[in-house]
Amino acid sequence: xxxxxxxFKKFFIPSLFVLVSTPAKAQITPDNTLGAEASSITLNTLxxxxxxxLINGGAQRGSNLFHSFTEFNINDGQRVYFGNPSxxxxxxxxxxxxxxxxxxxxxxxxxxxxxxxxNPNGIVFGNNASLDVRGSFISTTANAIQFGNQGIFSAxxxxxxxxxxxNPSALLFNQINQNNPGKIQVQGNGQSLRLTSDLIDTEDGLxxxxxxxxxxxxxxxxxxxxxxxxxxxRIDLGSVSGEGLVSLVxxxxxxxxxxxGVKNFGNIQLxxxxxxDVSGExxxxxQVVGKRISITDISQIQATTLGNQPGGSLVVKGSEAVELTGxxxxxxxxxxxxxxxxxxxxxxxxxxxxxxxxxxxLLVQDGAKLVSRTFGLGNAGNVTVNVDSLLVSxxxxxxxxxxxxxxSGNLIVNATKDIQVIGTTTDTSLSSGLFxxxxxxxxGTSGNLTVNTGSLLVRDGAEISxxxxxxxxxxxLIINAPQEVQIIGxxxxxxxxxxxxxxxxxxxxxxxxxxxxxxxxxxxxxxxxIRADTLGAGKxxxxxxxxxxxxxxIGTTTDxxxxxxxxxxxxxxxxxxxxxxxxxxTRLLVKDGAExxxxxxxxxxxxxxxxNASEGILVSGVxxxxxxxxxxxxxxSEEAIGAxxxxxxxxTELIIQDGGFVSSSTSGQGNAGNLTVNxxxxxxxxxxxxxxxxxxxxxxxxIGTAADITINTGDLIVEDGAGISxxxxxxGNAGNLxxxANSIRLNNQAIINADTRSxxxxxxxxxxxxxLNSKDIILRRGSDITANATGENVIGGNINIxxxxxxxxxxxxxxxxxxxxxxxxxxxxxxxxxxxxxxxSLTPESDITATGANPDxxxxxxxxxxxxxxxxxxxxxxxxxxxxxxxxxxxxxTDPNPKPLAKFVVTGHGSLPPSPxxxxxxxxxxxxxxxxxxxxxxxIDGVVPVSNNANxxxxxxxxxxxxxxxxxxxxxxxxxxxxxxxxxxxVCPVSR
Length: 992
Hints:
mainly beta, 22-stranded parallel β-sheet
């Protein structure tokens, strides 16, 4: 404590000399407004064991006693008391002169009555000012006090009080003149912060008896190193500018003040270690109402529960802004912070009270705090903030928590415009943040954290979290930001340690809360993270992202160690299972080393990862220093016993490029999860950037098996060294790969594989299977489809291809080979196969193989194509050149102005080549038919024979007929018709 006191004296006292007002006139002068009932002063009267000046007289009206003075000042060291006649409950003192009152000594009541001090010109309480009031004390620069319908007691229009027998009901400002209310200033030595859990110390500063009201209501209010205290009572600070009415309602704890009748407010400033404290057996109530409210220089407002009674409320209302600023480190682990505190202290069983802030603009910065906490058995109260804009920066902290058996309260932040949470303290020891959490060794439950805002920004190592590092359950974290959520960057704590900006729910021993973000767009960059983890026996919470306008995850920290991302994990040493991770959005971009991951590093299983992106997904690139690829993954790590969850992607198109990958993997005892992609338009996997782009299910050095990959899409395109793989490089089996697509294209060393490299104790067990179903499958430029195997007793896998057209060219292979054991099986069903064929070994050509360790261990290759001979039942065409004049009759038109007749041209492989000895030229048949003029129909008696052969021969047309509707048809057997008129001339006459 001496260290703290020396710090206060050194840091604060020199500046007090600037703030102290001019010395008070040692004068208390009654005026003549009360006539025969004027006040009188008796000097040097023994009161409470010391000499004091006693004020008697006044006008008593029922339980009210009225005094009136032209000057009212108390010197430093002077003690002035009001007498308290029998039956008097309220003593009301007005100052009607033109000067402010300077209270530098002790002001008290020799009894239990409430004391009102009214001076419209201002009131100053000096460094050594104190109160000795057993009732409530209300100091105001209002013009008058109203008494219901009975009238007013005015300091600016002083009259003898009428019959004012009821309790005071309101403070009236600017009742007659238009001047702003006078200021109220309280000065002190800045040494009265309560640093222990003892009951409140009421010896210093302005204090009233326990469970009473201390109110300062006037113009601007300045508290400089001041002390305002009441144990379990009420403290009210209200700053009014211009006209207004502040209502007074008698309650058990004195008076409740309401500001509904005030339009404009003044400023309130707490500085230089000011302490406003209503802590007690049950915390009291604090209300601060003004325009701009500033709490700086390690000043505090405390409403702490120290015993078994419930706490009251701490309410701050700023019509323009509220600002909390500053902290100071006394020693390692011991800091003092400016701010608002509603706590439950050690061993206290009473619950803490609510903490409420209403203002358009709230700034909590430079290590300041706005918190409700429990260190005892009672529960912490809720924290509710209603603002337009909120800024939390410089290591400031904001929220609710438990350090003990009591439960944390809930934190609710409503910001109609925006919230910014930025940075750390200058020494990086404290992150700025919004918290609802439980610390290690606590047993209570951490509360819920709800954020409702237009847009949210978290950056430079700041945090929003609902964590429980003790043995209780975590609360849920819900963020509703219709415009956008941005989480950006990290802060370096030391040369080898940094802290990412994050939004998280974590738990050590019990169930972690769920984390839900509902927003327009989500942007996570430069190593920032959103996490729902378990650190111990508890299950991780579920992480759900709903972003109507897209999700962008970009980049890593500058050193590439931490990727930007979304994570749901069961971490190292944990027993509990990971939660699910679900993304519902239009477009998802994962770029430059960013990650979306659901995994397990412990005993529990990993959670499922589900992505629904209606417009598309792009996974692209690698991070700084080429350490990590961009990826979507579900994984069971090397230390894991539990299995990885499933990964399901539903979208229109999935593009994986430039070293990005989508994977399900296991490196431990647990199995990898299944990977399912439903992309209505296409899946594209392409390119290499340090790492090849891949869609992967892998068991690497593990006991667990790789999972299945299922792809349902329109077009599947794999190219430029990229791959799709289900493989095992450990003791577990590879998974199966199932693809259903309209088309499959592999180009430029692309691969689809289900390879296995392990030891299999069962020599009869087949390995992974690839099932491809597509209308056409094309492999080009060294691309492969493989289900190969390496290792003792490891059989090659299975490849099943069902397609209309299969083409493999430029040394593109389909293989189910085994290096050390029996080859696998390749089964192909296709309408046509081009460029490849089954072979007993790989060649520089495009091959279909199922080789084994030796020729005796060769596998099976089965190719099924339609049993059709394209030359069967064709009729050989004649080689002679046709004389067209022998095939077509010359018809002369009967119209005197005939239309030109048509041409009949036969070229190319539609019928005849230019020469019987030459190849077909590929020119199409061109037969523009003429429209015959109207003629008398000719009767045709021929009958067109119909073959009964189930497989009719293809026969050259031998003639034409004209049907009843005038169409011309080519027929195999020309009918023998009898002309109905004589033959026409061979040459038609020239039209004239």
